[in-house]
Each structure stands twice: as structure tokens, then as C-alpha cells.
Write a structure and sequence with these properties.
This protein is an alpha+beta fold. It has two domains: about 150 residues, Ribosomal Protein S5, domain 2 (2-Layer Sandwich); about 110 residues, GHMP kinase, C-terminal domain (Alpha-Beta Plaits, 2-Layer Sandwich). The chain is about 30% helix and about 25% strand. It has eight helices and eleven strands. The strands form two sheets. Strands 1, 2, 3, 4, 5, 6 and 11 form a seven-stranded mixed β-sheet that branches. A four-stranded antiparallel β-sheet has the order 8-9-7-10, covered by helices on one side. Helix 1 links the parallel strand 3 and strand 4. Helix 1 packs parallel to helix 2 and helix 6 packs across helix 7. The chain is globular and about 55 Å long. The C terminus is likely disordered.
Length: about 290
């Protein structure tokens, strides 16, 4: 039996997210600057004698995108080869951090090579699973447009860290978009340029148009954002459809000290660094994209 392959699947932050009006298909065209960060879920994947899927850190479900990704690869190649996946969750769910998409991307990459799916078919399979999955296959820093399928990689911008805090709220992406429509598509205020890391200032103005909708649905998100901003002495942004909040710091030590100074009750609070890929091999025979 082949040895198991262990991979880390990295969370993403929407550093900016501009939302367009819903089109005739019901989708909202997006323009987003997205960055992979070092906060990661871990997956162990192996060809075995019978299927098995286990999850720790959240409820187990066959609806999990990681398992759906395996099924999608099997369907594409016409294989029923048994596979086991053990998923250890560290990325908060329903938080705007793309953990499910990251897990799916990592499984796609590994399963494609194990089961023989050509690399040039991966992007189409990824897009069918979710709008964030194509980016998570590549990772790093990228400008995302359309429905997530238009990905323009950018030169890495380092020399900063982020502090990420997830308030004790779960937000459905669909509910946030519906509220955004109901509010007549508000544009959010831009993140202050002077508080951006120097390497990101050429991308300004950066804003998250879903923030007003998320904070209307869950006013406690705004309360947490204000509280963290006051404690940390800097603006705090929201990623994706929320509720995860983040701010920029000089280095990981400063970010770690900041997230330690937070109100009680957060679902998650971690310091992270930008990374140049969407997933990476920890053990096994595969290498993540550089």
C-alpha cells in the first residue's frame, strides 16, 4: 500500500473585495485581492482498501468539500479506487477564511496525481466545486475576478504579519450576499492606505463591500471590529463574507501579542504570515506549487 501523503491547506484573506450587481445567472461578479496565509488545515490522504473520511475539529459530513473534491476527481477519471482522508481542522468554518475551499484544493491536487487526472483538467473541476477553490489550488497573492475563475498572480508581498480573530458568530455566504442585495449593493469604505503594508499600497483602495451586509446581519461583528481596533490602535478589516477580522502588523511576534489582547469568546484567534502557495506537502511524494 502506498505511503500516506500529508498536506497543509492554507487559509485565505480577502485583502479587498469589490462586489458587482447580480447578473442574469444569479452570480455577483467580483474583483478581489486575495492572499494565502500560514493558518492551515492538515490532511492525510492515502490509497487504501476501502474508503474512509474522518474529521477532527468540526462535525464530520460527506458534504464536506474535501470529500466532494475526491468524488469529483473519481468522476472525471472513471475510478472507484478506495481512498482515506483524515482532516484536522484549524481554520474556523463559516468565517470567510476559505478553509473548505483550501481543503478541497489540496485534495484535488493530491487525488489528481494519485488517480491520474491530467493537470490541465484541474481548473475546471476546481471551479465546479466553488469560487474560491481555483485560487486555493495556486495560492499566494492574486487578483481574482469574475466568479473566481480569472486569477492573475501577483509578485509576493512579504514583510508583514496579520492578526486574525473570529468573533463568536457564523455567517452564511449566501445570507450575506442576499442582505447585500437587499441593502441595494452598498460599497464599503476604503481601508486607510497609511495603515497598509508598503508593498500593498499600490493596490489601494482596498475595501470589502460585503462588510456592511455582514454587520447588518450580525451587529456583533461591528462591535468586535471596533473593540479590536481600539485595543490594537489600528484599523481592522473583514475577510470574505465574514465574520473573521484581521489587521496588519510588522511581524509575527507583534501579531501574536495583539491577538492575545482580545475580548473573551472568540471562536479563533491566531497570528499568521503571507505564504506563496495554496497548499504544501508535509510528507509524501508530491510537491506543492511554488
Amino acid at each position: 500500500m502506498p505511503d500516506p501523503i500529508t498536506v497543509d491547506a492554507y487559509a485565505k484573506l480577502n485583502l479587498g473585495l469589490v462586489v458587482g450587481r447580480r447578473d442574469h445567472d444569479g452570480f455577483h461578479p467580483l474583483t478581489s485581492l486575495v492572499q494565502s496565509v500560514s493558518l492551515a488545515d492538515r490532511l492525510v490522504i492515502q490509497l487504501t482498501d476501502e474508503d474512509d473520511f474522518t474529521v477532527t475539529g468540526m462535525a464530520e459530513s460527506e458534504e464536506n468539500l474535501a470529500w466532494q473534491a475526491l468524488q469529483a476527481v473519481r468522476s472525471e477519471v472513471g475510478s472507484d479506487r478506495p481512498v482515506t482522508i483524515a482532516l484536522q481542522k484549524s481554520i474556523a468554518v463559516a468565517a470567510g477564511l476559505g478553509g473548505g475551499s483550501a481543503d478541497a484544493a489540496a485534495v484535488l491536487a493530491v487525488a489528481a496525481r494519485l488517480l491520474g487526472l491530467p493537470e490541465d483538467r484541474l481548473a475546471a473541476v476546481a471551479g465546479a466545486l466553488g469560487s474560491d477553490v481555483p485560487f486555493c489550488l495556486i495560492g499566494g497573492l492574486a487578483l481574482i475576478q469574475g466568479r473566481g475563475e480569472q486569477i492573475t498572480s501577483q509578485e509576493p508581498v512579504g514583510e508583514y504579519a496579520v492578526g486574525i480573530v473570529v468573533p463568536p458568530v457564523e455567517l452564511s455566504t449566501r445570507a450575506v450576499y442576499l442582505k447585500w442585495d437587499e441593502l441595494d449593493g452598498p460599497a464599503a469604505g476604503a481601508f486607510p492606505t497609511s495603515h497598509l503594508p508598503p508593498g500593498l499600497r499600490s493596490f489601494e483602495p482596498l475595501r470589502n463591500d460585503l462588510q456592511p451586509a455582514a454587520e447588518t446581519l450580525a451587529p456583533e461583528v461591528a462591535a468586535w471590529r471596533d473593540e479590536l481596533s481600539g485595543r490594537w490602535g489600528r484599523p481592522v478589516a473583514m475577510t470574505g463574507s465574514g465574520p473573521a477580522l484581521f489587521a496588519y502588523f510588522l511581524d509575527e511576534d507583534e501579531a501574536r501579542a495583539a491577538v492575545a489582547d482580545r475580548p473573551a469568546g472568540a471562536r479563533s484567534a491566531q497570528a499568521a504570515l503571507p505564504v506563496v502557495r495554496g497548499w504544501r506537502e508535509v510528507t509524501g511524494t508530491l510537491a506543492g506549487p511554488e
